[in-house]
C-alpha cells in the first residue's frame, strides 16, 4: 500500500467509519512515514477544533419573532386578494360602457383593448370573463331601439379619437389607484 | 402522542398557521446552527434564520414527505445562505470579534491561541469554494451524516465523499501555509 491508499484510510477515520484492523494498519504506517503522520496530526487538530466549535443557540423569543413575520405575510396576502376583489369590478364597471360603445361602432379596437386587459390584470382568464359579459350585454342591447343605436353610432364615429383617449386615461387612473391602495396597505402592515 | 412533522405540515397547509410555530420550535436549533456556521457575519444570523423559516413556510406545499423534514429544511437554509453570500461577495468580510469562544478555565494566553486558531480555521473555510465549503460545514460542524448531505446537496454519495476529502486536504494546506508564514 502506498501513501495515497493510507490517505483513504485516514479519511475513513475522519468519517468515523473505519474498522479496527484498518486503523491499526494506518497507525503502523504512520509510525514509519513522517509525512503521513504530520498530515494526520494536522487534519485531526483542524477537524477537532471544528467539531468543538461553539454551539449557536437561537434567542428564546425566536418562535414569536418568526410567527410575527408570518402573520404579517398572511395579512399582506389577504390584502392583495382584497385589492383584486375590489379592483377588478371597479375596472370592469368603469371600462364597460366604453367597451360597449366600441362594440357597436364595429371597431377592431375593442379586441385590442380586451387583449391588453389580459396583460394588465394580474390573473389569467379575466379577458374571457369580460368577453362573456360584453357578449351578454350586446345581446340585450341589440333588442333596444334601432334608431337609438344608430344615433349612438353616429356620435361615436364622430368622436372616436376622444373616446379612445378617455378610455386610455380611465385605464391608467384605475390601475394607479389599485397599485396605490395595495402599496399603502403594505406600508401600514409594516 | 407527538404529532409527526408531516401532520404539522398538513395542518399548516389547511390554514392553521399556529402549527407552524411547533415546526419552528422543533427545528430552530438545527437551522440556527447551520446558518451560524455558514455565515461569516454573525450579526446576520438571526435575520437569516428567520428568513429560512419564512421560506420554509412559503414552500410547505412543495414538501416531499420522502425526505426527512430536517434534511429538507437544511437544504433551504444552505441555499438561502449561499444566495446571500453570492449577493454580497463584493463586500469584504468583516473582522470578527475575538473572544466569543473563550472558556473561563483557560489562561489568557491559551485562550488567545485557541481563539486565534479557530478564527484561522473559520477564515480558511470561508475561503473554500462553495462546493467544498458546504459539505465540510454540514459534516464536521453540524454533524449531518453522508446520507443527509447527499439529500441536502442533491448529489450522489461518491461526489459528496470526494468533495469532503478534498475539502479536508485543502483546509490543511491553507492552514499549514499560514503557519509557515508565521514562523518566518
Automatic annotation (TrEMBL), chain A:
Residues annotated as transmembrane: 83-102, 122-141, 162-181
Superkingdom of the source species: Bacteria
Entry keywords, A to Z: Membrane, Transmembrane, Transmembrane helix
Name of the protein in question: Zinc-finger domain-containing protein
Species in which this protein is naturally found: Clostridium thermosuccinogenes
